[in-house]
UniProtKB/TrEMBL annotation:
<keyword id="KW-0489">Methyltransferase</keyword>
<protein>
    <submittedName>
        <fullName>Methyltransferase domain-containing protein</fullName>
    </submittedName>
</protein>
<dbReference type="InterPro" id="IPR022642">
    <property type="entry name" value="CheR_C"/>
</dbReference>
<dbReference type="InterPro" id="IPR000780">
    <property type="entry name" value="CheR_MeTrfase"/>
</dbReference>
<dbReference type="GO" id="GO:0008168">
    <property type="term" value="F:methyltransferase activity"/>
</dbReference>
<dbReference type="InterPro" id="IPR029063">
    <property type="entry name" value="SAM-dependent_MTases_sf"/>
</dbReference>
<dbReference type="GO" id="GO:0032259">
    <property type="term" value="P:methylation"/>
</dbReference>
<dbReference type="Pfam" id="PF01739">
    <property type="entry name" value="CheR"/>
</dbReference>
<dbReference type="InterPro" id="IPR050903">
    <property type="entry name" value="Bact_Chemotaxis_MeTrfase"/>
</dbReference>
<feature type="domain" description="CheR-type methyltransferase">
    <location>
        <begin position="1"/>
        <end position="273"/>
    </location>
</feature>
<keyword id="KW-0808">Transferase</keyword>
Amino acid sequence: MAVDDASHHIIGELLAQRTGQQLTEGRRWRVASALSGLFREFGIENVDQLACMLERPGEHRLATRVVEALLNNETYFFRDHAYFSVLANQVLPDLARKRENRKRLSIWSAGCSTGQEALSLAMIFAEQPGRWRDWTIEILGTDVSGKAIETARSGLYTQFEIQRGISVAQMLNFFAESNGQWQAADKIRSMIRFQQHNILDYPPSPGRFDLVMCRNVLLYFDPETRATAFSRLASGIAPDGWLMLGAGETVVGQTERFKPAQFGSSLYSPVLEEYPKAEPRLRAASF
């Protein structure tokens, strides 16, 4: 193994241990560019030097910064509009019928990055006040990146970020300009709670989520890690709930915990675990 390969292996192992993501050959090209800012800050000349520093005891802060830099936090509001159309017109009405008695919905945006997906969901509810009047809507956004969660909690977005995915009307209705940035309004932020969480850990609230959105997260896992992730997602979703994955993801051939839904692409429903039937009790003989 060449020195450069060994260095990438050390960095890849760090990423896998912290997040479960694999630093595949196809992703190596972005390592230098992703870490360029870190190199300047710490006076690091190349990947080999970084690998040597990571091997030293007590470099927890540097290791965390490396992982944060390597994570792909690409996202924007209403990413893949067709998916949100399916949510608004099919999934949420289905859940509204199922939860009519309790008037409460719990949604988990797993791998939420900097919060745009969770805020997009909140906007759907806010734009249908008649449909959701008297309902309690709880949206939990989680991500393995602490830096991304900090941004999500702030609800502050740049001019570039605010223009990606939403209309001018939505921008003016749900955001307010503040010192060159745009602040999400309380009427949508109040529905959402953000926390740092690794999808490979047990869900924050097992068995209670009516809808789980986990899009473009599993792409970076190997088959074994992906199976673990599906198991964790399954334990965090209601028996009659919904799972939505990204366009390049599927449960087919990956897990037996979910099955394709009858409507909507990338929608899946949990497979209820079957337990063996109890043996019938023998009746006592009468004499």
